[in-house]
Structure formats: structure tokens, C-alpha cells
Design a protein that fits this description.
CATH superfamily of the largest domain: Tetratricopeptide repeat domain
Domain DUF6377: 253-492
Strand content: under 5%
Number of domains: 3
Keywords: Coiled coil, Membrane, Transmembrane, Transmembrane helix
Radius of gyration: 28 Å
Structural class: mainly alpha
CATH topology of the largest domain: Serine Threonine Protein Phosphatase 5, Tetratricopeptide repeat
Order of helices and strands: HHHHHHHHHHHHHHHHHHHHHHHH
Largest sheet: none
Pfam families: DUF6377
CATH class of the largest domain: Mainly Alpha
Number of strands: 0
Shape: globular
Transmembrane segments: 325-348
InterPro entries: DUF6377
Distance between the termini: 71 Å
Helix content: over 70%
């Protein structure tokens, strides 16, 4: 028995080592393909150019041929570039109307919905779905229609993540998934893939995701299909096996010139969590490049929420670790103060001992270049990240000066003067300064916020800043709501109020609104960022 136990441990160790070596080889392959990805993109562009040339030489009367070529161009652009895919769906709609072909009009609307949902445009996708009558569709179009319905509700459940509505969305998604499966050919790729998406049931002996394994390891797939299945299967694993599947997905995304993908992003996230900051930064940059090229709003926002942290940690790792305890202590003090006052949590560990000013400026310039590439959807986060870096610099200079003075007085054994020096720190004044700076940055992004907010109230109930206020307490609460912070507990921690106070303020303001109570927050969210000419 002892020998058997030893043998099992040895086999387990060999398997882990082999799996890690296999992942290292896949990682090297992926990095090599990142360098050569232009080769695959050039092939894609050549195929597209051929279709465009054929479309250009079509006779104006050849509407059917034009429609088919536009449909082929849509398929080429579908996972490659959102704007171009959108253009050709519009051309398909126009051609189908000119041909008076209602099924083609509906099929074009379905394809438009497919790319709209990939970009996170839920309302527009629903508008497309509502314009389609599935009764007049052929089998292939019906399959696309019900698959779009399934994806729409599944994505809505994922991004809303609401305890009241998510269950309903998931049930709707599963209902449409069942219908889509019934329309697939027996033992086809689509049928097996959709079966893998069916939730497991109680007492089920084999999980449905085993269908993914069958497709990946026993069926001959295209690179794009391989990437899709490997990425989906990775959600059912952890550790080295999950990383292996994500690497396979990312490699095949490059082979198929797929830009609308999350595989590289998930690789970067896993590496960041495991402490591999250098590679995490590389793959996050690639994920951002893909999202920008494709034009995916949601993906850019997701990446924008993580990339600055990774970039900051990359800078920190490259700096000297001497006097680690002192610097961490000072950084922790800054973070505690900032977390209690500002709209979101920023975790930046600062190490600034014996590092030349030139290196710090160079790294800051790199971060500024990264922030400039983020889209308008990331505008709010960019503005506040820049603001936080300025505030941190001020605090570091103050703390550095305080540290030098304290050390000098300690060496001279002037302990009373050290206490007097520390008593000069006015926390309330610093907190008020941070609030005012937050207000000014917010009004720079939303200069019409106060006017728009009061337009929702009766004249006698309107709330305007008094005296030297920038934003009043009530206005600041709803400014945080406009930034996406709805949780009363979070708002209370930021503004240093009780949760009940925040709740009472909200209820009182909504009770005085001229719009329905349950629509007040939606009207606040409709207040737009004003472009001030920022590059």
C-alpha cells in the first residue's frame, strides 16, 4: 500500500511538471505569433480586398449577387472589425429592401443585431430583434435569430448581475437556446456546441461541458472554431489546464485574425493574479489593441479598469526595494485616507528611494500614452486617474519633507519639536481639499450636471451650491451615482456618512422629483460627459 501511495504521488508530480512545460511551450508559441500576427491579418485583408473588388465590378442590376457579396464581407468582418461589419449589414438591408425580399431584410437585421451585441449595444440589439418576424425565416435564419436571442439574454444577465432580474434573463436565454438546438443539423458543430451551454441538472452523471472536450479533441475544427471552444472550455477549469486552454484559444484567434476576443485578456488577468506582471502587461496591451481595432466598447472599458493597475505595478517592480517597510507604511497611510474619501479604490504601491527623477518621468509618460489610447467610454476613469497621480505626488512631497524634518529632529533628540511638527498635519483640511478637487474634476467632465440635476426638481425644491461650495452634500451623492456608484454603503464610506443618512438623502430628493421615483436614477445617468477638447 505504501508503494502504491508513493507511485501515485510520483505520477501526480510528473503530470504537474509536464503540464507546466506544455504551457511554457504554448506561451512561447503565442509570443512568437504576436510578432507575426500581421502575416495572418494580411491574408484576411487580401480575402476582403478580393470580395470588395468583385462587389465593385457588379452591375447595378445584379442585386442578388451584390447581396451575397455583402453577406460574405459581413462574415469576414464579423469578428475582425465592428465598423466595417456594420457598414455591410446596412448595405444588405438596403439591397434586400430594393429586392422587396422580406426574409432577406429580416436576416440582415439579425446579422446587424449579432455585431451590435458584440459591442455591448443592448438596446439597439433588442430593437433589431423586435423588427424580425421569425415565422417567415428559413431554417438557417431562424437558427441565427434564436441564437441571437439566447446571446442577448445571457449577456444581459452577465453584465447586469442583478439579484432580481438575472434569474429571469438566464431562463429566457435557456429557452431560446433550446429552440436554437432544435434547428441545428444532427451532430453538427453548432448542435454540439449549444448542448455544451445547457446548464447541468441535479443528478446528471456527465457535465454538459464534456461536449466542448469532444469538439476540441475529437472533431476537426477551423482555427476560429478551435478558439471559441477552447475559450469556452477554459471556464470549467482552474490552474494550468485553464491557462493551457486560454493559450490555445489565443493562438487560434491570431490564426483566424479574430479581434473580437477575450482570450488574451483572460490570460493577462490570470498572469496578473499570479504575480507575472511583465507578461500580464504584454497581453493586456495586446487585448487593448484588439478591442480598439475591433471597436468593442465593453471590452475597452473592462481592460481600462485593469490596465492602469498592471502598468503601475510594472513600474513598482522595476524600482529599488530598499527600505521596503518604511515605504509600504507611508503608502498604506495614503491609501487609507484616499479610500475613505474618493469614488473608487486605487491601489498603487510607491517606492521612491534612490530613483532618479528622469526614470519616474519616463514611466509617467508611458502611463500618459496608455491613457490617451483609451476611448471616450474610459474618459471618466482617465480623468480621475490623472487627478490621483497629481494628488499622490503632492502627498509624497509633503511626506518626504516631513520625513526629512522628523529624522533631523530625532537625531538632535528634539522630541517635542517632532510632536509639534506632526500636529501641523490637518486631516480635516486635507479631506476638504480632496472633496473640492473631486468636485472640480467632476464638473470638468459634467459642467451641466448641476443645471440638469435641478431640472428634475420643482423650482422651490432645487438644490444649488451655497457660499463657497463647489458641490453640496446632496449633489455630491448623486455625482457618485452618475459615476456608477449606487451602493449606499460604498457612498457612505467615501463621504464619511452613515448608510441611513445616504438612504434618507436619496429618498428625500427622489420624493421631490418631477419624474417618476423609479426613473430618477436613469435620468441622472443620462447626463452626458461634455467634450472639452481633450486629445
Amino acid at each position: 500500500m505504501k508503494i502504491l501511495y508513493t507511485l501515485l504521488l510520483w505520477l501526480l508530480a510528473v503530470t504537474v511538471v509536464y503540464g507546466q512545460q506544455n504551457n511554457d511551450a504554448l506561451m512561447s508559441q503565442l509570443k512568437g505569433m504576436l510578432v507575426q500576427r500581421r502575416v495572418y491579418d494580411d491574408r484576411k485583408e487580401a480575402d476582403i480586398a478580393g470580395l470588395k473588388k468583385a462587389l465593385k465590378h457588379c452591375s447595378p442590376n445584379e442585386l442578388e449577387k451584390q447581396y451575397q457579396l455583402c453577406s460574405s464581407l459581413f462574415e469576414e468582418y464579423r469578428s475582425y472589425q465592428y465598423d466595417s461589419a456594420y457598414v455591410y449589414t446596412q448595405k444588405m438591408i438596403g439591397l434586400s429592401i430594393a429586392m422587396h425580399d422580406l426574409p432577406k431584410q429580416y436576416d440582415s437585421k439579425i446579422k446587424l443585431g449579432i455585431i451590435l451585441i458584440s459591442s455591448g449595444m443592448f438596446k439597439e440589439t433588442l430593437d433589431c430583434i423586435n423588427q424580425v418576424n421569425p415565422k417567415v425565416l428559413d431554417k438557417g435564419s431562424k437558427l441565427r435569430y434564436y441564437r441571437l436571442q439566447c446571446v442577448y439574454y445571457a449577456d444581459l444577465a452577465y453584465y447586469n448581475n442583478d439579484k432580481y432580474y438575472t434569474k429571469q434573463y438566464v431562463e429566457q436565454a435557456n429557452k431560446y437556446l433550446d429552440t436554437a438546438i432544435s434547428l441545428t443539423e444532427n451532430n453538427s458543430f453548432e448542435q454540439i456546441m449549444y448542448k455544451a451551454e445547457i446548464p447541468d441538472t441535479a443528478g446528471q452523471k456527465i457535465s454538459n461541458y464534456k461536449y466542448y472536450e469532444y469538439l476540441l479533441y475529437q472533431r476537426k475544427l477551423t482555427p476560429h472554431q478551435t478558439a471559441m471552444i477552447a475559450a469556452a472550455l477554459s471556464d470549467h477549469y482552474q490552474g494550468a489546464e485553464r491557462m493551457k486552454l486560454l493559450l490555445i484559444a489565443a493562438i487560434n484567434d491570431i490564426k483566424s485574425s479574430t479581434k473580437e476576443t477575450m482570450a488574451v485578456y483572460k490570460i493577462g488577468t490570470n498572469l496578473y493574479k499570479s504575480g507575472d506582471i511583465k507578461n500580464a502587461y504584454l497581453f493586456m496591451q495586446e487585448a487593448l489593441s484588439n478591442a480598439q481595432f475591433y471597436g468593442s466598447r465593453l471590452h475597452k472599458i473592462e481592460i481600462a479598469s485593469v490596465l492602469p493597475d498592471i502598468a503601475a505595478n510594472k513600474i513598482l517592480i522595476s524600482e529599488n526595494e530598499k527600505n521596503k517597510f518604511i515605504i509600504y507604511l507611508l503608502s498604506s497611510l495614503i491609501i487609507v485616507v484616499i479610500i475613505s474619501l474618493i469614488s473608487f479604490i486605487v491601489f498603487i504601491q510607491l517606492k521612491r528611494l534612490r530613483v532618479k527623477e528622469r526614470i519616474i518621468e519616463e514611466k509617467n509618460n508611458q502611463l500618459e500614452k496608455i491613457n490617451k489610447r483609451l476611448s471616450e467610454e474610459a474618459r471618466i476613469k482617465e480623468e480621475y486617474i490623472g487627478y490621483f497621480f497629481n494628488v499622490f505626488s503632492e502627498y509624497i512631497l509633503k511626506l518626504e519633507k516631513l520625513k526629512r524634518n522628523a529624522e533631523r529632529k530625532m537625531k538632535s533628540k528634539k522630541y517635542d519639536e517632532v510632536l509639534a511638527l506632526l500636529s501641523q498635519i490637518d486631516i480635516k483640511q486635507e479631506r476638504d481639499h480632496l472633496f473640492r478637487t473631486f468636485d472640480r474634476v467632476f464638473l470638468k467632465l459634467f459642467p451641466n450636471f448641476i443645471t440638469s440635476f435641478n431640472a428634475l426638481l420643482k423650482p422651490e425644491d432645487q438644490i444649488w451650491p451655497k457660499g463657497n461650495e463647489v458641490l453640496s452634500a446632496h449633489l455630491r451623492i448623486f455625482a457618485l451615482v452618475r459615476l456608477g456608484i449606487n451602493d449606499n454603503e460604498t457612498i457612505a464610506k467615501i463621504l464619511e456618512y452613515t448608510v441611513s443618512t445616504i438612504y434618507t438623502y436619496k429618498v428625500r430628493v427622489k420624493a421631490k422629483a418631477i419624474v417618476p421615483h423609479d426613473e430618477f436614477t436613469n435620468h441622472i445617468m443620462d447626463i452626458q460627459v461634455v467634450d472639452t477638447g481633450k486629445p
